[in-house]
Structures are given as C-alpha cells and as structure tokens.
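Hi U.,

Before I forget, here's the chain from the pilot set. I'm dumping it here mostly so it's searchable later in email.
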Amino acid sequence: MATTKLDRYDKILADPYDFIESSSLGKRLGLYRHLTQNMDQLMDDPDQEYDTYDLHEYLGKNILEEMISRHKRVDHREHWTMISYLSELGFEVVQLPTGEGDIASNRVKIERKEDDLLPSLFDDRRLRQLGAMREEAEFSYLVVTKSYEQIRNGARERGVSDKILLGFIASLCATGYPPIFIGDRHDASNLIHRIIEKIEDDRPRLYVARPKSPDPIEYRNVIVEALPKIGSKIRRRITNVFPSIHDLANASIEDLTEIEGVGEATAKRIHEIMRGGGSL
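Structure:
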C-alpha cells in the first residue's frame, strides 16, 4: 500500500524536533502547513507526547530565523520584471554594493546580464566586478536572460564575429563564470531562486574535490568542507580557530557557535560527526 502524506506526517510527528533540526526548509514548511491545517485535531489527540501549539510556535520561529538568515536580496536597479518576480519569491529589494552582484543571499551572489552582456566585451571592468563578487561569495554565478542565439544575433548586428563572441564566453568560463543562458525572465527568476534554495539547504551534498597533492593542509580543508553546511568561506573561519582536525574534534558546541556563520544546529551536527556519532 502506498504511503500517504498523512502517514508520512504521522511518522514525522513521532519525533518532530529531530525532524526540524535535520530537514530542509521546504520540508519544514510542509510540516508547518500540516500543523496549521490540523491544529484542532492534533491538540485533541490523547496520544500526542508534546504540546502541538508549542511545536507549531517553535517550528514557525525556526522557519522565520532560517529565512532571515538566508537574507535573499535583489538590487533595486534591476529590471522591474525581475524585481516583481523575485519579490514574489521572498526576495528583499535593496541597494547591493559593488561586488555583491544583482541578486544575493547569505552564501550566493548572482550577476544578471541581458543587453549589457555585449558591452562587457569591450569593458574589462565587468570582469573585475565578477572577480570582486567571487571574493565576497561562497558561491557565485552569471545568469544571462537571453538565449545564446539572441546574444549571437545581437553581436552580429554590432559587427562582432562569432569567433570573438565565443572567445569572450570562453574567457568567462576560464575565470569561473560560465554564463547560464535562459531567455525568459520569469524562468530565470525561478532558476535563481532554486539555485539559492539548493545551496542554502545544502541538499544535495556539494562535491568537494580530492586534493591533487599530498599537502596535509589541503586534505584538512577537504575534510572540513565535507561537513554539513560548510563551504570554503566558513571553512576558513573554522580553520583559523581550529587549525588541525584534532583541534576541531575537541571543540565544544559552544566553541563552534562562536564562529560566524555556524549556527547551533550545524555546531551540534559537526560535534556529533567529529566525536564519531556522539561516542568517544
């Protein structure tokens, strides 16, 4: 027999607080809706081992804190359609400084190009801006809200050859910004939203390359970056405080939460992993 949504929520509600600490934002939102819609029924259930109202309040606060921590923002100088679409997806409209891109979250910075992609061919300031964005962001991307065909046709009208255009795109790829061509602004907004959600949720686990040299520092960095919700920027903060795996393994939860970007849930998970699942 197929498992229904109600069956799944019954299993989740057997240990809801563990679910809240370990699940993605989307799954927590689903549980929040379930609690809201079935509050009276759940509160009257004599088998419940916890106060449903308190759980609902705790989960709501947890979700709000997560959404605030992601700090999803779109620059007010963006095209009004992009602002409209992204606002509906929960982005705050602000003025982003140079180096922050056009769209940003806690861990992600995204530069959007459209008609201004071709002028970038003749202005190395654009490439410098992308370089600055990488310094500020754990993850950074370039999204072009036109198809490659539209960009190529526009280049031809300007007298720019296909060879030059391809060389420019190759330069973007070589500097770590392969352009994502997507011709519809609504689709692009949803893609941007999904990129940020995937990275902020850290689901699926991001690939961490194996070092090519036997440098102990490189192996240490790979091990630390393989921990849940730890990217290169937070890894640098961790290793500045705990320069060896031994030091990190002996760090307390309180020590870890003092590091900027490491929340209590992440600190508990790292502590558990480094202590071998909780046992010494």
